[in-house]
TrEMBL record, chain A:
Region (Disordered): 1-29
Protein name: Branched-chain amino acid permease
InterPro entries: Brnchd-chn_aa_trnsp_permease
One Pfam match: AzlC
TrEMBL record, chain B:
InterPro entries: Brnchd-chn_aa_trnsp_AzlD
Keywords: Membrane, Transmembrane, Transmembrane helix
Top-rank lineage group of the source organism: Bacteria
Alphabetized Pfam families for the sequence: AzlD
The name this protein goes by in its record: AzlD domain-containing protein
Residue intervals passing through the bilayer: 43-61, 68-87, 93-112
Amino acid sequence: MRSAPEAGAAGSSGAEAFSPEEPPADESSASSWFWRGARASLSTPGFVLFGSFTGFGAMTHDFGWPVWAAALSTLLIWAAPGQLVLAGALASGAGIAASSLAVTISAVRLLPMVVAILPVLRTPETRFGTRLLAAHYVAVTAWFEGTRRTQAMPRTARMPYFLGLANGLVAGSTIATVAGHAAAANLPAPLSIGLLGLTPVYFLLSLERGAGGIGERVAIVLGLVMAPVVSQMSASFDLLLTGGIGGTAAFLVDRAIRRRQAAS
Amino acid sequence: MNQHDAWFMLLAVLAAFAANEVWRVLGAVLSARLDENSALFSWVKMVATALVAGLVAKLVLSPTGGFALAPLWLRLGSVGVGVAVYAAGRRSLALGVGAAEVVLIAGMVMLGR
């Protein structure tokens, strides 16, 4: 997530976003950039993502989801934290309203990611519909790899490349979700438990990987410590309470540290 | 449990899709006009971070279903090794996740379950 401030800075003034010193337009067509992007989805971050969706698929099998629901959630929601929150909330007995509320809270972080990546991807000719489409594919891995890889490309190549990359990641992740769901029932116990264990450790590490400062790391620790305690008190709203109280406390700690740094 | 009801699942996934997508749409609408480094955004990010971290703790400490077949010490141990290898290995997700998986699967094999 380190590249976010630069991307945001480039986007804050429209003139700079389309600076003249960028590489000259490439002769290759949009569809060749699309397929180049799609091929790039078969990379290490892509395979880590596919692995985590295999784990998610296995977990939904464990929770009694039909396989189509698991695949549909990857295709449509396309945000592993949101899908995980949905599965966790439904499993602890929350209804549709409460689980959607928890999902929407987990998804607010997508907004600044969209705000950061669109100025990198778009050209002055990019239509609003295309921007919406690109925004739909914003999720941690697609966002991080998309920003990182397209910044050095000619501007006309960026959007098709990103759409190819993101579609490759969605396709692979959907296949992985279905495979994980199917495998959970048929693998020897140590391997299926290994699949189920994939999700929590992947999330913990990717939260740390994406943390932009001390405040988000404090939020990770507070969330880990608070959730077991809070879930004893309120089973269906425990995630909302953990997020609200832990996140606000982390925010206050972060502000206090910044103020101290500014003062000294 | 009503989760097996196909209509309930379809509705739950579609509602979650809408609840998730609204922030992407807002981001596209507002993209040029918002400062992603504002205090409001950093607060929101921390609330979401604490929420997902809380979910991770619940999944490890009190899992439902098959993951509960692994004893608590093995679940905690595998995550601990994953974090340690991730920290030692230049914050590599693949290394950390891989190490946690090796510990978890080897542990289950040795326990003979």
